[in-house]
Amino acid sequence: MTRYVSSCFITLFVLFLWRVEDIADACKCSPPHPQKAFCDAEIVIRAKVVGKKAVSNAIKYDIQQIKMFKCPDQVIHAIFTAPSPAACGVTLDLNKEYLFTGKLETGRMYVTLCGYNPPWEDLSAAQKNSLTHRYQSGCDCKIIHCTSLPCPISTTDACLWMDWGTNNSQNLACIKSNGSCAWK
């Protein structure tokens, strides 16, 4: 009988370790460059959060849309996100304005922790200006995030992003000019 109990205990322990690893890997991502987030998003808006409600497997934030930057002819009244940061859900403050970059699914806007959804007041003047004037024109360029040296770049349609602990390149846009992309 002890051999049976021991075998069951080992099996349960292995299953437990397997599940812990799944839970630990729940939401992993590095913050995107604002232009990359803009170009990858289906919809980009500035909005004020005015309400919050838990709805089947999601959090619904009621918003007042202030400005549409991408996805014309769409009025958004709510933003949906996963119920917790562990599931890549975004936590937002009521009565605060944000820039939201997200996806549309069945007429609903979804945002995640891996997207770019900063408070509006945290954006620099250059970033706010780029939302209407530069980011869209640079969507043909690739932004390659370099996390350690060396960072080789072998194409002319890309900009190397080496923003280690500073916000300097967050104020720049990768724009194509004369057949190649460069930070401007």
Automatic annotation (TrEMBL):
Keyword Nucleotide-binding among record annotations: no
Subcellular location: Secreted
Gene Ontology CC annotations of this record: extracellular matrix; extracellular space
Domain NTR: 27-139
Family: Belongs to the protease inhibitor I35 (TIMP) family.
GO biological process: negative regulation of membrane protein ectodomain proteolysis; response to cytokine; response to hormone
One Pfam family hit: TIMP
SMART domains tied to this protein: NTR
Entry keyword annotation includes Nucleus: no
MF (Gene Ontology): metal ion binding; metalloendopeptidase inhibitor activity; protease binding
Domain of life: Eukaryota
Coarse class of the protein's main subcellular location: secreted
Alphabetical list of InterPro entries matching this protein: Netrin_domain, TIMP, TIMP-like_OB-fold, TIMP_C, TIMP_CS
Binding site for Zn(2+): 27
Name of protein: Metalloproteinase inhibitor 2
